[in-house]
Amino acid sequence: MQAPASGGRERFDELYLLAPVGVFLLAEDATILQANLAGAGLLGIERASAGRACFRSYVAQRFLVDFDAFVARALASREPVRCGVQLQRDRGDRGVPVTLLGCAAAGALHLTVEPAAGRLAALEQSEERFRRIVQTAREGIWEFDAAARTSFANPRMAEMLGYPVEAMAGRPLMSFLDAEGRSLLERNIVRQQEGMPGRHELKFMRSDGSALWVHLTANALFDADGGFLGALALVSDITEHRESAELAWQQANFDALTGLPNRNMFQERLHQEMKKARRERGFLALLFIDLDQFKQINDRHGHQQGDALLVQAAARLGACMRATDTLARIGGDEFVAILPGLGHVQDAERVAQDIVAVLQRPFELAGGEQGNISGSVGIALYPSDAADAEELLRHADQAMYAAKNSGRNRYTYFTDDMQSAAQQRARLALDLRRAAANDEFELHYQPIVNLKTGVIERAEALLRWRHPERGLLNPADFIAGAESSGVLLEIGDRAFRQAADQVLAWQRAIGRPFQVTVNVTSAQLRDEAHGWLGYVESLHLPPRSLVADVSEDILNEPAGHVFERLGRLHALGMQVALDDFGTGHSALAQLQQFDIDYLKIDRSFVGGLAGDSGNLAMCEAIILLAHKLGLEVVAEGVETEAQLALLKAAGCDLAQGYVFARPVPADELLALARRGTLALPSASSAAKLPGPG
């Protein structure tokens, strides 16, 4: 017996798997590395798990010294070394006498196990055992003739394919394969006829039409004259493994919601297309697409409706693409499109125009509702706008931001000026994260005055950023950046707690009820990680100490967490004010469905007040409506005595604005509240005010 050639361990299955005697590959400590079918049957072990067993443990106790000496000699020899031992499946068995033949093979021990009976008896026993193993094997054994027709299949092979054993005889191998498999088989028939063993992963078709993925090891069969007789194959079912691998690949490379390539697959394809463009001296366009107003859809209708819209948007965007283009979803509402092999820049522009157009059309949502969004598209070209994939994506992103800042619902090409704007945004995001960590945000308070008594009864908490270089900044300078950089929720949560602490301190200082109004977004109400409910309870605040100032758009939220948490805050004594009333899209009937205590007239109506103006009529209508519904009215942005007089005459309950005071720090607000009442114009003075012009 010659030792296997180099690579023998890898070719073990091909050469020895179906031998009628036991064949093993052992490590130096006699651990079983591989076993053939006959060998696994001899020891009574599963061939697939043979690696967990040690061959020495099956040698009868009285033969262990002989066996150890045999292993030492065999590992040092390239020629077969012989030894007689007795094997036992269990220590209580009588055992079976066998002859071991072993030699070194690529750092391992190649071992053949033959029964020690007479040659004829041994042959008969081996053949009988081999027939039994073939019939009961858990792997398929399949033999083909020279025309690739089935000449033999064991029961396991027939079972895998879903046919009776007798139905397998004579069936062409091609009949079990799809077109791809037939092509692969035809390419390898010549290799088989030349005697080259083949290993393949193939997809067969079961009798019910389902796919059977197998690992197939085939060895050619020849007659005494070297004529090709066919092949003998060992077949293992790997369908479950293959499907698991395909699922893992799918999950790693495709977006689960839309089915589009994800960021990972997008980056791979972008690198490939850029290499091709360099090789062919062509160019490609990268489109960065962001859905405008998608956050409002999510906030108003919930994430389930938002997901439904994303699926529809993906389908519309896909319809704008060519077969050679790649559309991917790389973020929540962010898509990118790779357009390779373009003839002209205008080709990319036409795609961008189509995208803007299809996203403008209303989207159908559940319950017969419609969602309206638009799209902002940034276009960057390779190689003119970037040298590598990361830079190209960054520049397309910057162009998209430029489109969004220019009014949305449009497309914009990348320019060098956008790089500077993007760097400023990045610096702002970095500064905001640092400011949140260093607690650089503070609250200023604007007094809210009772127009009947002149008493400062409450104040609105307004966020300010005390920037170490730029000084005190208003929200307009940083709120958009805080939202896009992901720190707005953290800042808002701190502001809520600070305002709650402050109103409690003021109440103790002035010895009377006092309220603080805090701006609260629907996103904050959806996220209960801040623990507001528990915090408000822990302070034991008197009822009506806090007012949640919410946007009018919150009335369009679907019933769910937002209203449930707002209701729980209301139950703790917190009141609710509807901000900027008259500027949103709510229906008046919705006002009666929710726990609302105040309507706030937007400053856009107050700023144009005059004795006979339409704005005055609007304010009077809002005040009348609110009082009919049992609500109080707060006017914002009151700057002049004339505006104040008209509002007081119209029956407005409360007002805030520069006519009383600008937003001030907490200690200054306390001083204002302690002064008592403020002088207010009489109702009759409003009648004496001149009209416009």
TrEMBL record:
<dbReference type="InterPro" id="IPR029787">
    <property type="entry name" value="Nucleotide_cyclase"/>
</dbReference>
<protein>
    <submittedName>
        <fullName>EAL domain-containing protein</fullName>
    </submittedName>
</protein>
<feature type="domain" description="PAC">
    <location>
        <begin position="198"/>
        <end position="250"/>
    </location>
</feature>
<dbReference type="InterPro" id="IPR035965">
    <property type="entry name" value="PAS-like_dom_sf"/>
</dbReference>
<dbReference type="InterPro" id="IPR001633">
    <property type="entry name" value="EAL_dom"/>
</dbReference>
<dbReference type="InterPro" id="IPR013767">
    <property type="entry name" value="PAS_fold"/>
</dbReference>
<dbReference type="Pfam" id="PF00989">
    <property type="entry name" value="PAS"/>
</dbReference>
<dbReference type="InterPro" id="IPR000700">
    <property type="entry name" value="PAS-assoc_C"/>
</dbReference>
<dbReference type="InterPro" id="IPR000014">
    <property type="entry name" value="PAS"/>
</dbReference>
<feature type="domain" description="GGDEF">
    <location>
        <begin position="282"/>
        <end position="416"/>
    </location>
</feature>
<feature type="domain" description="EAL">
    <location>
        <begin position="425"/>
        <end position="677"/>
    </location>
</feature>
<dbReference type="InterPro" id="IPR001610">
    <property type="entry name" value="PAC"/>
</dbReference>
<feature type="domain" description="PAS">
    <location>
        <begin position="126"/>
        <end position="196"/>
    </location>
</feature>
<dbReference type="InterPro" id="IPR035919">
    <property type="entry name" value="EAL_sf"/>
</dbReference>
<dbReference type="Pfam" id="PF00990">
    <property type="entry name" value="GGDEF"/>
</dbReference>
<dbReference type="InterPro" id="IPR043128">
    <property type="entry name" value="Rev_trsase/Diguanyl_cyclase"/>
</dbReference>
<dbReference type="Pfam" id="PF00563">
    <property type="entry name" value="EAL"/>
</dbReference>
<dbReference type="InterPro" id="IPR052155">
    <property type="entry name" value="Biofilm_reg_signaling"/>
</dbReference>
<dbReference type="InterPro" id="IPR000160">
    <property type="entry name" value="GGDEF_dom"/>
</dbReference>
